[in-house]
Amino acid sequence: MRRVRTSRRPRETGRRIRAAALRLFARHGYAAVSMRRIAREVGVQVGALYAHVPDKQGLLFELMRDHLEEVLAAWEATPKGDGPLERLEAFTRFHIDFHLARPEAVFIAYMELRNLTPENFAAIEKLRRRYEDALQAILAEGVQAGLFDVPDLKLATLAIIAMLTGVNTWYREGGRLPRSRIGDIYWDMVRKAVARGDGPPAPSALRGYRG
Amino acid sequence: MRRVRTSRRPRETGRRIRAAALRLFARHGYAAVSMRRIAREVGVQVGALYAHVPDKQGLLFELMRDHLEEVLAAWEATPKGDGPLERLEAFTRFHIDFHLARPEAVFIAYMELRNLTPENFAAIEKLRRRYEDALQAILAEGVQAGLFDVPDLKLATLAIIAMLTGVNTWYREGGRLPRSRIGDIYWDMVRKAVARGDGPPAPSALRGYRG
DNA sequence: GTCTATAGAAAGATAGAC
DNA sequence: GTCTATCTTTCTATAGAC
Which domains does chain B have, with CATH numbers? Predict the structure, then answer.
């Protein structure tokens, strides 16, 4: 293959470096992926990488930061409906859809936190916290309105996010469930998990079992 | 290959090596921790490690396998009560307690799967699957008895485990919540998430809000 | 069982040519 | 911007002394 000429779009290589790093970091882990391997994936020599990224740590940070900023922007652009219940459903479906569309970025953002420098870690945590706060605000409104009953606002927030993010650990393209069904299934569980209701597991079920 | 043990407590060093590896792998990640660093933590030279563990990969595998076998043994030894509801509560509290007592092993078992060789990965997944099946069986019984209503058995299993395991991402010793409260809080959410009940968020709450 | 020493490979990052 | 070449460090794992 003959090398044609210098690219007209100087950002294209940088973009491909990030794409390769995203895929490799997600698959093998940040610490297990060398700059040489990223370079090979892109089709350049290792030295060329440093014309596009500051260093390996900076590359990881940029991937995580860009991802989290995309999450926040996408959520803010999502139609959310009127009440807390509608907004909670919107959040549930948004979170699942967004995560399933970007499994690699999601995986890195959750798994590689410990490989960030303290400064980078603080910046990433700030972004993540903003996202968690969006859900927590919905739950708070719902509780205030008497619609929801959660034992602890912060824990309910983290529990729901953990549950929803867990989709990425098992979902495979072309699996048993069509993607459109997954939002329905999880929304059913989220909806009930924050529902008001005092009897275990629910008044009607308890009567049916013991009465 | 032969190991001649002359020490009075020949297994003590091996035990300390595993303990150090557990702590370091959990904190920095398998790929980021060198055998030299483990040795330094234990207080020996790096060559001495290989009298106790086969190699780095084998060390990781042993840590994960021992942990998962402990989980299974501990769950089987746990009193579970009579009905599905009681067993689900037992599972919920057991999972949280066990995870909070072994944060490092739990973290490794969930985060380092991709650093296992294919054979080791298969063995670990088999153990994890056995644990998931224990919960799924409880949910299946509850559905059969008309006590629970889950949209999908497998997904409910994974959703609950993801939610419960998420505790380890935020729990800190001496934090806002006493450890005894956490089981209560999550049990409330799990209980409701699998509860029968068709109205969003729950019939009683819906009436209270709109009626 | 632990030590010292080292083999042999690979890592992150940079310099200078073009 | 990308190349080749290299500096410097670090890695896993093993050998042989004691």
Answer: 1-53 (1.10.10.60), 55-206 (1.10.357.10)
